Amino acid sequence: MNNLEQTLSIIKPDAVERNLDKEIKEIFKYKGFNIVKEKKIQVTKAEAEQFYKVHETKPFYNDLCVYLSSGPIVVMILEKDNAVLENREVMGATNPKDAKDGTIRKKFGISIDKNSVHGSDSVDNAKKEIEFFFKD
Ligand code: CMP
Q1: How far apart are CA 125 and CA 127, in angstroms?
Q2: Distance in Å, CA 81 to ligand 1 centroid
Q3: Residues in the chain with pLDDT < 50?
């Protein structure tokens, strides 16, 4: 049965800085995702704090928000059957050291912080994250 979903993907500053955004988008397209909307932006630290609010009690929260706001990012709405789960598989484990061969984080990730991409972790969060970046 078809289960068309949308999820939010972010190409993080470490990847944009290394000009990997085009190559990462090609991977998503090759894996069957439709890039419905995309934009290159730079968020403020306050916006990063709002975006990552679910992590506000974590010890890495401040560094994470400083990092996300440190340079340009590419935010995208990806669409495919089971997009949320499929995107997480294409990205690989949060820590590039644990990511499987062939995943984006294994290929491009530098560290758990500079792990090149973010993807929504549930259908509910995907809706919230898409709304956060693409209100209109
Ligand atoms: P992301 O999928 O963007 O969601 C939150 C981010 O926090 C995560 O990727 C990592 O880059 C970062 N992070 C830093 N330290 C940790 C940690 N110990 N556990 C999970 N995420 C972490």
Answers
A1: 5
A2: 25
A3: none
